[in-house]
Amino acid sequence: MKPVRVGLCGLGTVGGGTFNVLTRNADDIARRAGRPIVIEQVAYRSLNPDCDITGIKTTQDVFEVANNPDVDVLVELIGGYDVARELVLTAIENGKHVVTANKALIAVYGNEIFQAAHKKGVIVAFEAAVAGGIPVIKSLREGLGANRIEWVAGIINGTGNYILTHMRDEGRAFEDVLAEAQALGYAESDPTFDVEGIDAAHKLTILASIAYGVPLQFEKAYTEGISRVTAEDVEQADNLGYVIKHLGISKRTEAGLELRVHPTLIPKERLLANVHGVKNAIAVMGDAVGPTLYYGAGAGAEPTASAVVADLLDVARDITTAHHYRVPYLAFSGIDEDVSQLPIMPMEDIVTAYYLRLLAVDRPGVLARVATILSEQGISIEALIQKEATEGELVPIILLTHRTREKQMNEAIRLIESLADIAGPLTRIRVESLDEQE
Ligand SMILES: NC(=O)C1=CN([C@@H]2O[C@H](COP(=O)(O)OP(=O)(O)OC[C@H]3O[C@@H](n4cnc5c(N)ncnc54)[C@H](O)[C@@H]3O)[C@@H](O)[C@H]2O)C=CC1
Ligand SMILES: N[C@@H](CC=O)C(=O)O
Ligand code: NA
């Protein structure tokens, strides 16, 4: 049978991995696809020493691939927003299917891209864009199709989890571990995307759209990174029975959808608390199936390539069976119709528990003043640790609260920070109990 011809754009970490997996496993892939999947052309800026591209047509210009009539599927692995958007739209305009690992592109321009693809009747597949090699998009879009999804929560940035794990286990400095994650090919070209939660917010935006059938709304996601989490917070969380993880959380509530990324205290016994290094895990709660968990490598050359090549297989199978994209881009049918208008909730309306760490002058009555402020905002305290003074006359106070509205907590924090006895901004980390095992 006629092969499916791939135009590979970008030969970096994921491009190189994709090239190698596709060529190494070509026979098995052809048997699964019902036809060979061959690399017709590669566009790259610099050669990847791990790839032997002898005999393959190459170019420095990615648009040559998008305009090449011998290419059936364009694989976009150059990353970034603008050139990638133009490249993908050009390929679609030319009737080519597209496979991409670019979550920034899908989260920000996905609505426009799917419209264009729908018009042309081509596939845009992006399994590698969320949680690397874990087939979470396929699971959510297809395997859980019978369910009303209640919530999705997970560790969806490998670099951030790698940093938190190695800082905690080896006491290493943030910058040192970040440099290692970059060398291993896990980080984005701008690593602040990983560290500040932007990459996780891109992925959460995509997961939420697929889970609830809402348009992609990255601009409404609340995003907070891990750069302010200290070794002290990690230790105090541990004393209280929690682990700090950087989570993406999206819940369906009566008021709308929560869409938030931030460091989170989770009970040590939860499965998510035990996901370490570059591994990702996403818990999904469906009304029929109950809690489910998807775990694996969230970044890296071949784990991510595994998802890219699986998407190529889907494309090949759809071409072979002459289907017109069997599964809708964001899981719900139609492109405008059937999209739910469930609102994304403002962060101030979120209800959750909180860990607070403050530094107070060691004088009688400070704790009572803090407790009064919390109580006046209707916030009750679940646990309290007051440590011996360690920093001159400043004494750390750790508080764990019961669930309360973010708006009340913001007001309480503002009032506590304005007390003369309190030094500097306090640390606030949200707490989730995440019943993913029940
Ligand atoms: N590294 C990882 O573990 C994962 C990355 N991704 C996504 O995959 C995409 C690629 O990421 P990486 O492979 O890590 O990046 P990378 O920086 O290793 O590779 C990108 C390659 O594209 C090339 N490139 C950029 N613009 C180009 C252009 N105009 N023409 C030709 N070549 C061009 C660069 O020279 C580079 O070799 C990104 O969208 C990223 O977010 C997704 C999941 C995991
Ligand atoms: N930089 C990302 C790569 C995969 O999406 C991460 O670290 O998770
Ligand atoms: Na994936």
UniProtKB/TrEMBL annotation:
Q: Where in the sequence is the signal peptide annotated?
A: none
**Looking at the keywords, is Oxidoreductase present?**
yes
What is the active site of this protein? K203
InterPro entries in the record: ACT-like_dom_sf, ACT_dom, Asp/hSer_DH_NAD-bd, HDH, HDH_cat, HDH_CS, NAD(P)-bd_dom_sf
Query: What UniProt keywords are attached to this protein's entry?
Result: Amino-acid biosynthesis, Methionine biosynthesis, NADP, Oxidoreductase, Threonine biosynthesis
User: Which reaction is catalysed here?
Assistant: L-homoserine + NAD(+) = L-aspartate 4-semialdehyde + NADH + H(+)
What PROSITE patterns does UniProt report for this protein, alphabetically?
ACT (PS51671), HOMOSER_DHGENASE (PS01042)
What organism is the protein native to? Halomonas urumqiensis
Taxonomic superkingdom = Bacteria
Where does this protein hold NADPH? K103
Q: Which biological process annotations from GO are given for this protein?
A: methionine biosynthetic process; threonine biosynthetic process
Protein's name according to its UniProt entry: Homoserine dehydrogenase
The ACT domain covers 355-430
